[in-house]
Specification:
heterotrimer, A mainly alpha, B mainly alpha, C alpha/beta, A: mainly alpha, MetI-like fold, 2 domains, 16 helices, flat, B: mainly alpha, MetI-like (chain B), ABC transporter permease (chain B)
Chain lengths: ~400, ~240, ~300
């Protein structure tokens, strides 16, 4: 047995074999879908028909390298690099397929990624995820990674490589609306989150201090969570319309039965439970001996709260905020159904028109936003945890 | 009988009466209608909607349970442990996908009807069950495992007779989470023409009829609460039996 | 008979058990004593192949254990561990019946065996059979754990710190019960402990281990009188040596004729307890009784002679 770790493993990696199988199937499946217009069914084209021979060759060779790397390469960093390279090539070449397949001067024809593209993207993302999970990166590197991925995505979109693909065709038609709804979506998600934090944290502290309040509040919030979101959104229309009509000035500040107000209130209602319960749990989990030590040193109730309990409960509260943010980014989509705006507008329009590309235009940014916020906030939670435990040891 | 059980029985009775004879509640829901709009949704039979709703939920959650528990068992076996970090990470990421987005993305692949809803609920249901099964299987008391091995149980016997039964309360917790989310999320399925109770709510949204929204929301909420409480009672019974409660 | 021949276990280049050979006769109790990290538990776990030896052989009644499938071997050897390891989701009866069920016994035979064992361990079957483990006291759980290990009537019982989780009073009772049961059913027992007192009071032979090596394997009196290495000597403790020697003897073996006054001492009590009683009450001698009838007396002089280093 040699002592020096080798770059290559003697036995094929099981996960690598699975990924190789996925890539093999993905290569056989159609890469792109060509349709005469955005609604009609189209013609599915495999890699060698969707791309010029040279580019098709590059893609197949790149995929082959990724497969070999994932089966025999042992160093996670190298596998990660290989897979990221593979994803980049796949994304760029997908854009090229758009330009190659669209007949010149034809604005109606649509080229969209097909099953093969999605499967290849999935397989390569698996390699990336696996390598990242095995590398156990420090939080700060994970944050940087997300930012880099974001920059990469912006560069790809900004370079115009993808302009011939159907999702971006949908975007070009309604770019103004896209950014308006994006802003609205973020406003809904973050606005309701801020309100939930402002109200929920003090409410959580109160629940921690008064046990009877705690069971009442948590039970009520639990029930709110079980009512389906679209019903909560809908039910708020009536009372808000009533407020807008009867309370002077309410309408002027934007309260109305339809639109953003009920959506905001509904998201707020859903956000309260995780914030309140995590605040309570965080405070309850502060070790009794540490609390005793604080009082033993002569701290007042308030001093012990600010200097000891809040800092130690902070990571748990932050976890609650992470749950709420990810949940709200998803739920804000439903606002589209009641005129509240957000990316849901495109999703529901797309469903109404059976226009897949339009659905994607709404769903993809939502998924990307939610996932990126989760990764970012997880990293922040981890940083705050390590600083809280440092405090505890000190 | 305790107050809590009485309240739940009353809730169940009200729910049953409403599903079979919704007209009984017409005077109540009429309070929320304007300009003589119908107080009760009659375009479809509520009972059949509710049954179809629950059929979709149960099918999706059952499928998710079989696959998620199977996967979790697989990656906790020593031979397959190289899949462990990946499956953890996937479960974590998958949880961040908004259910509506999953539903919306399933439509292009499957068309309208019950199909996309079933798939979305199935996919979304996988993660809590997988995560909980992993937690349950990796937090077993080490002395019990050691004793099982020492008495000569094979790996398979240990899995079926010791590991899975001991992890069962935690696994059930995951199934409960998935079921409650699925009951609520299934309503959105009606935007893609699945026959669920969401139909009532959407009809209310389209015709500006608060009574419809309210009855749809209340029925789904009541089912979710009852199912949730049923699961909790079952979990408690199991863990109390094993002295973990 | 259990024969360990040159057993060695190496984990990642670290030798945990180093070339250990010893023979345990049938019907005897061997205790393995050592500090944590001495390799005593690993040695025990190699006997039922929970740990695969790196080299060396184990023979049970002349048969090499590596020729038997591990699960089959384990079903033939009882195994009881610290913290009992009872299955929390199964009743006491189902717990005890585990190995018989694995061996495919008939239901009626299992049920009869369960009741027999509950009786043997002083647990009323009708009352305890259907209880769940968490409804028992610590001492009862431990007894059920040992009963479960004996369920299929194994010739060998391995015990890893079986009394480690018990408080001192219950612990002494559990040790006495184990000795009584072992005398009745004659099982060969290998017991791992870090407690020298336990090793001395239970073992026919004591194996002292340190850093993976077997330092000495001998009867208690030999270990106390002639510790093989300074480590063994330190483990026994020079202050305690005479009293440990006394503790090995019974009063009934030291009885002499003659008068004595004051409360009587039981003939089955150990000599150390008798000596303590004489010192405390300021007597030179005390009457001895067996089964309530006077059988003679015990003197300080007789006891003191037993506490001297044997030649």
């Amino acid at each position: 047995m040699s002592a020096r770790p080798s770059l290559f493993s003697r036995l094929p990696d099981k996960l690598g074999v699975l990924i190789a199988a996925l890539v093999a199937v993905g290569t056989m499946l159609p890469l792109a879908l060509l349709r005469a217009n955005r609604i009609v069914p189209g013609e599915a084209l495999p890699i060698w028909q969707a791309l010029p021979a040279f580019q098709a060759g590059i893609l197949i060779v790149a995929l082959l390298i990724c497969v070999i790397a994932s089966i025999w390469l042992r160093v996670p960093g190298l596998r990660l690099g290989g897979a990221i390279g593979g994803v980049a090539i796949l994304l760029v070449l997908m854009g090229q397929a758009g330009g190659y397949l669209t007949p010149a001067g034809n604005d109606l024809a649509r080229v969209s990624p097909a099953a093969g593209f999605w499967l290849l993207l999935f397989a390569l993302s698996l390699t990336v995820t696996d390598a990242l999970a095995k590398m156990k990166l420090r939080p700060i590197w994970r944050i940087l990674g997300v930012l880099l991925a974001g920059v990469g995505l912006l560069l790809l979109l900004g370079s115009g490589q993808w302009d011939d693909l159907s999702v971006l065709r949908e975007y070009q038609v309604r770019s103004a609306a896209f950014w308006r709804e994006a802003e609205r979506h973020l406003l809904l998600a973050f606005g309701s989150l801020s309100a939930a934090v402002l109200i929920g944290v003090p409410l959580g502290v109160a629940c921690f201090r008064v046990p009877r309040l705690k069971s009442a509040v948590l039970n009520l919030l639990n029930i709110v969570q079980t009512v389906p979101s679209i019903a909560v959104f809908g039910l708020l229309i009536a009372p808000l319309a009533w407020i807008a009509a009867t309370i002077p000035g309410a309408a002027r500040i934007g309260v109305s039965g339809i639109g953003a107000a009920p959506a905001m209130v509904a998201l707020f209602a859903y956000s309260l439970l995780p914030v309140v319960s995590n605040t309570v749990i965080g405070l309850e989990n502060v070790p009794g001996r540490i609390r005793d030590a604080a009082f033993g040193m002569g701290m007042t109730r308030r001093q012990a709260f600010m200097a000891v309990e809040v800092p130690l409960a902070f990571p748990v509260i932050l976890t609650g905020i992470r749950i709420v943010l990810v949940q709200n980014i998803g739920l804000a989509t439903i606002a589209g159904l009641i005129g509240g705006g957000g990316f849901g507008v495109f999703v529901f329009q797309g469903m109404g028109q059976t226009a897949t590309d339009l659905i994607l235009l709404g769903a993809l940014p939502t998924v990307i936003l939610a996932t990126a916020s989760a990764v970012l906030l997880d990293a922040v939670v981890e940083i705050s945890e390590s600083s809280a435990t440092r405090t505890m040891r000190a | 009988m305790s107050m809590a059980i009485l309240i739940r029985l009353a809730m169940l009775a009200l729910l049953a009466v409403f599903l079979v004879q919704p007209e009984v509640f017409a005077p109540f829901f009429a309070l929320f209608t304007t300009r003589g709009a119908p107080p009760i949704y009659v375009q479809s039979d509520l009972l059949s909607l509710a049954l179809n709703h629950m059929a979709i939920v149960v099918t999706a959650v059952l499928g998710a349970t079989v696959i998620a528990v199977g996967l979790a068992v697989l990656v906790t076996r020593p031979n397959w442990s190289e899949f462990l970090p990946l499956s953890r990470a996937l479960a974590n990421i998958g949880q961040t996908f908004p259910p509506i987005a999953v539903l919306a993305l399933a439509v292009p692949a499957m068309g309208f009807g019950n199909g996309p809803t079933l798939v979305a609920l199935f996919l979304y249901g996988l993660l809590p069950i997988f995560e909980n099964t992993m937690t349950g299987l990796s937090n077993l008391p080490p002395t019990v495992q050691e004793a099982a091995r020492g008495m000569g149980m094979s790996d398979r016997q240990r899995l079926w007779q010791v590991e899975l039964p001991l992890a069962m309360p935690v696994i059930l917790g995951g199934v409960r989470l998935s079921t409650v989310i699925a009951i609520s999320t299934a309503t959105i399925g009606s935007t893609v023409a699945a026959r669920t109770l969401g139909e009532v709510i959407i009809a209310g949204l389209l015709s500006n009829n608060i009574a419809f929204i309210l009855q749809g929301g209340l029925v789904v909420g009541a089912i979710a609460v009852l199912v949730h409480d049923g699961f909790v009672a079952l979990e408690r019974r199991m863990s109390r039996r094993a002295g973990q409660g | 008979m259990i024969e360990l021949q040159s057993l060695t276990k190496i984990y990642d280049g670290v030798t945990v058990v180093d070339d250990v050979s010893l023979t345990i006769n049938s019907g005897e109790i061997a205790t393995i004593v050592g500090t944590s990290g001495s390799g005593k538990t690993t040695l025990l776990r190699m006997i039922n192949r929970l740990v695969q030896p790196s080299s060396g052989r184990i023979l049970i009644d002349g048969e090499e254990t590596s020729s038997i499938p591990a699960y089959e071997l384990r079903r033939r050897i009882g195994y009881a561990i610290q913290g009992h390891g009872l299955f929390p989701h199964r009743s006491v009866g189902r717990n005890i019946g585990t190995v018989p069920r694995l061996l495919g016994w008939k239901q009626a035979r299992i049920a009869a065996r369960v009741d027999e064992l509950l009786d043997l361990f002083g647990l009323e079957p009708g009352e305890f059979r259907d209880r769940m483990p968490h409804e028992l006291s610590g001492g009862q759980q431990q007894r059920v754990g040992v009963a479960r290990a004996l369920a299929a009537g194994p010739n060998i019982l391995l015990m890893d710190e079986p009394f480690g989780a018990l408080d001192p009073i219950i612990r002494a009772k559990a040790q006495d019960d184990l000795l009584a049961i072992q005398r009745r059913i004659g099982t060969t027992i290998v017991l791992v402990t870090h407690d020298m007192n336990e090793a001395i009071s239970l073992g026919h032979n004591i194996a002292v281990m340190d850093q993976g090596r077997l330092l000495q394997f001998a009867p208690p009196a030999d270990i106390i009188a002639r510790p093989g290495t300074p480590f063994v000597e330190a483990l026994i403790g020079s202050e305690d040596r005479p009293f440990r020697m006394l503790a090995l003897q019974r009063v009934r073996d030291l009885i002499e004729k003659g008068p004595a006054s004051g409360p009587a001492i039981d003939a089955w009590a150990n000599a150390r307890a008798a000596y303590a009683e004489l010192l405390w009450s300021g007597r030179e001698a005390a009457p001895v009784q067996e089964g309530g009838a006077p059988v003679g007396r015990i003197t300080r002089a007789a006891l003191q002679s037993q506490a001297e280093k044997p030649v």
